[in-house]
Amino acid sequence: MRVAALVVAWAIALAPNAAFAENFKPFTLKTLEGEERSLSQVMGRKATLVAFFFPTCQYCNAAFPLVQKIYDANKDRGLSMVWINVIPDEQRLIADWRTGHGYTATILLGQRAVAEDYDLRMTPTHVLLDAKGKVLWKHAGYKPGDEKEIERRIQQALSKE
Amino acid sequence: MTIRPLLGAVVLLITASSVWPAAGAARVVTKSSRHLAFTASLSPDIVRPGTTLSLAVDVRPKTGIHVYAPGTQYRPVAIAIEPNPALSIDEVVYPRPMSYLFKPLNESVLVYERPFRLTLSMTVGGTPAQVAALTAESRMTIKGQLTYQACDEKVCYLPVSMPLDWSLTVAR
């Protein structure tokens, strides 16, 4: 009985939350230009790196120049990158922010429900998807050096047939 | 046997998030989130035309957490009081922040990472129109929010808005 309870507790502890279980929850969100994009429209041929962010998030601003470089180096190999803003009242800042930093990732405008839909409590949160939209890896936060792990995971995903 | 319910009641009173003291005193609200705890004290709790209300919010960031001060490009901690036709609301007074070096960007920002106090004054019925708005009421409700966006040494948390709510007696 006690063993069974432990097994159940262990299984619950290890179970990923619903939004990140197996396949990434599909979405349809607007771009800065007002066009709708679904998950399937922005997915890469081999892998997709989704990042949840907002423009005044310090750690996003520390990570994104490096993540942009990783994307630049790998986009021709089938990598797509999508950044989803999680704070609607910061949407007005994004156009200048993107231009100022020279970012080229697809930027989508999340509504208030995005944080709940993906159980987000912090930014940046990076989620790496395979070609079918299955979640390969999820990473919350950023500290210097994390970009190496992001790149390693991307290389793994891109090297798969 | 009879002391246990009594103890329970005492514990309940101590841990209640809002405390209603005697008339004329401050009304105190204590709340906490995963990033900070705060005590908001509004006084007096009986108002009449011309009364100046003083709100003091003592914020205690949790270990390793900082919130932003005004004067940076980031979202500062703030008190937002909802407009009330019987009320004039002054600006929030902030204490001196500390400079925090954000190493990944080599950027100095103004933050609070130790306990600090925000204060705000409000005047009840300071104009004829406000007095008129107050006349028909026996209670006055003041609602607002403490808003902030916190970060630690690795992540930024999503902005948080914590409600503030008081009901004051309007004296005749």
Q: What topology does this entry show?
A:
The complex is a heterodimer of chains A (161) and B (172).
Chain A: H1 2-14, E1 28-31, E2 36-38, H2 39-42, E3 47-53, H3 58-74, E4 79-85, H4 91-101, E5 106-109, H5 113-117, E6 122-123, E7 125-130, E8 135-140, H6 146-159
Helix pairs in contact in A: 3-6
Chain B: H1 3-15, E1 18-19, E2 27-32, E3 36-43, E4 46-47, E5 52-61, E6 66-68, E7 78-81, E8 87-89, E9 98-102, E10 107-112, E11 116-124, H2 128-135, E12 139-148, E13 150-151, E14 156-157, E15 160-170
Parallel strand pairs in B: 4-15
Antiparallel strand pairs in B: 1-2, 2-3, 3-5, 5-11, 6-10, 6-13, 7-12, 8-11, 9-10, 12-15
Plain-language structure description:
The complex is a heterodimer of chains A (161) and B (172). Chain A is α/β, with parallel strands linked by helices and 161 residues long. Chain A contains 6 helices and 8 strands, in the order αββαβαβαβαβββα. Chain A has a single domain, classed as Glutaredoxin (3-Layer(aba) Sandwich). Chain B has a single domain (22-170), classed as Immunoglobulin-like. Chain B contains 2 helices and 15 strands. In chain B, the strands form 3 sheets. A 6-stranded antiparallel sheet of chain B has the order 1-2-3-5-11-8. The longest helix of chain B has 13 residues, at 3-15. Chain B is elongated, with a radius of gyration of 19 Å. At the A-B interface, helix 3 and strand 6 of A face strand 14 of B.
